[in-house]
Amino acid sequence: MLRKSQTSGLEKVLNRTPAKVIAVTSGKGGVGKTNIAANVSISLAADGNKVMLLDADLGLANVDVLLGLQPKFNLSHVVSGECDLDSTVIEGPQRLKIVPASSGNFSMLDLPSASQAAIIQAFSTLAEQPDVLVVDTAAGISEGVARFVQAAQQAIVVVCDEPASLTDAYALIKVFSREYGIRRFQIVTNQTRDAWEGRILYTKLRKVADLYLDVVLRHLGNVPMDPWLRRAVQEQRAVVDAYPRSVSGQAFKDIARSLQQIPAAMRASGNIEFFLERLLAAGPVRAGGIA
Length: 291
Ligand SMILES: Nc1ncnc2c1ncn2[C@@H]1O[C@H](COP(=O)(O)OP(=O)(O)OP(=O)(O)O)[C@@H](O)[C@H]1O
Ligand SMILES: [Mg+2]
Prior knowledge:
The chain has 13 helices and ten strands. The protein has about 290 residues and is α/β, with parallel strands linked by helices. Helix 2 (about 35-45) crosses helix 12 and helix 6 (about 115-125) runs antiparallel to helix 13.
């Protein structure tokens, strides 16, 4: 239940344009989630959207490392009352706003409800509300990640051409669809030789999903293996910022364009508070709907 002060915050936000919430996930680790989340966020911002990137890899925060930023505060400081949410926000390229996770064992999902409500309230009173919230999650099939994905409107699953990545992506889609009621997945193929190889990889995943699962997959885009991306990582810069004309830089821009063509969610469910409320309330699907 929300307190009165929270409802007034909520009303204020309901009158704003809804935000799209996009979660980036993968079965196997190290396949490129953080690079995709950061570069797509920057590309969306370059197209004129107000974008916020939430680093939800709550164990090992790394968006800030990837972009060479040094955050002073993170969500754990908001919860402990040391600062407000606006003070945690750091700015990346193209005025991208980044909310850093905390390293250590802080987990938003394990917080007592008063602290969770404080986070929801904090998002409702942000000085500037984003049009798009991109959530970079941790790898693997955990309840925490499932809940982030369940609460978002778009789930991006990153897969690369290795047997373990493909089988782990399939396992994630299976568990998320059967146990969490998530039916739609946007697939990004990464580290491929070219678009053709990306298409083949997607088709492999799609065929087996069509046979055994009740899900809708879509190939959102392909990012080829790109030495410029590695170079940008070493320089702690986003490739779209450092080498915008590289093949991966172009691919991230195309993915951002495809995402913008997906219609915005219904007004209420599109707001960030609702994303957070769903996140904190969600869980495994029980008979008859989401628990
Ligand atoms: N398209 C690409 N071309 C070249 N190298 C890539 C590409 N995508 C990812 N990589 C390499 O893979 C590394 C891991 O990427 P990233 O950190 O984005 O993965 P992740 O899925 O977020 O990992 P984790 O599961 O640990 O969070 C990068 O540092 C980079 O070296
Ligand atoms: Mg990562």
